[in-house]
Amino acid sequence: MKSPVSVFMMDVTDSSRNWKEVSSYLEAVEAYIKLWTKGLPNVHVKHRLGDEIVCIFDHYATAYTVAFYIGQIWKFTNQPPYFGMSFGNVDEDISDIDIDKWNHPLMKHARMANEKIKQSTNRSPILLFPDSDAMSIASVEMSNLLLEYQGKLVAEQTKLQRLISGLFSVLDEQKTIANLLGKSPSTISSHYKKGNCEIILKTLNTIQNTLNNLEETQSGTYPSNITKELQNTIKNHLKQNLDIITN
């Protein structure tokens, strides 16, 4: 029986500039990912080569959901992370995969997507290169365009807009965020709109739904509830540790 999985290879922009700080921070990010995905049956997460994190997860939408929230909490704003990502179905028992030796085409595709981002002058923070059986070329191009647009909106945010966007992705409450930041609700609302936070979060939902629908078509599984549970787990962890976002 084939198993639906998603993969990402994450690197950090210009990490050699302060590689010790970045490497130390990535150890914390690795721990967050393991905590967020603890409810999934099969997860492989590894921080390696100083500035790289490689992950293999159950389900198509998992890698993207985790990558999105890493982007929301990332503290080195001038050195953003970027993710080469792939998804599809595998024959292997995922629990038995050795992440350092697994040379499945999905890993190669994620690496190719990562390298394409690295070589691009107009970097998208996330690029999909899925298995050809999982997604049509037109769907890949459309999804990558959405991801590029989402990344552009995030990159254009001011520091405060980015903070508000991150808090909204977790708390969903304007008054709570206003009280937390010591600002008026109208100020929060203004920065929310100017920072295109609503569009960024709508794009998150659109891509998640697209990947869930693809998985249902390709695998016969019904992952939408699993994606919601994953997102709720991430939100609950960050609600209890808001300093991860605000510091």
List keywords for this structure.
single chain; 247 residues; alpha+beta; Alpha-Beta Plaits; 10 helices; 56% helix
Q: What features would you describe in this structure?
A:
56% of the residues lie in helices and 15% in strands. The chain has one domain: Reverse transcriptase/Diguanylate cyclase domain (Alpha-Beta Plaits), CATH 3.30.70. It has helices at 19-36, 62-73, 105-119, 137-155, 159-171, 174-181, 185-194, 197-219, 224-240, 243-246, and strands at residues 3-12, 43-48, 52-58, 81-90, 126-128. It has a five-stranded mixed β-sheet. Helix 6 (174-181) packs across helix 7. The protein has ten helices and five strands. It has 247 residues and is α+β, with helices and mostly antiparallel strands. Strand 2 (43-48) and strand 3 (52-58) form a beta hairpin. The longest helix is centred in the last third of the chain and has 23 residues, at 197-219. The model has no long low-confidence stretch (mean pLDDT 92). The N and C termini lie far apart (45 Å).
In brief, what are we looking at here?
The chain is α+β, with helices and mostly antiparallel strands and 247 residues long. The chain has 10 helices and 5 strands; from the N terminus they run βαββαβαβααααααα. The model has no long low-confidence stretch (mean pLDDT 92).
End-to-end gap: 45 Å
What series of H and E elements makes up the topology?
EHEEHEHEHHHHHHH
CATH superfamily: Reverse transcriptase/Diguanylate cyclase domain
Largest sheet: 5 strands, mixed
How large, in whole angstroms, is the Cα Rg?
17 Å
- Which consecutive residue ranges, at least 5 long each, have pLDDT under 50? none
- Per DSSP E runs of 2 or more residues, the count of β-strands stands at 5
The structural class is alpha+beta
Molecular shape: globular
CATH level-3 fold name: Alpha-Beta Plaits
User: What fraction of residues sit in β-strands?
Assistant: 5-15%
Helical proportion, percent range: 55-70%
Domains (count): 1
* Count of discrete alpha- or pi-helical segments spanning 4 or more residues: 10
The average pLDDT score comes to 92
Q: What's the CATH class, please?
A: Alpha Beta
CATH architecture identity: 2-Layer Sandwich
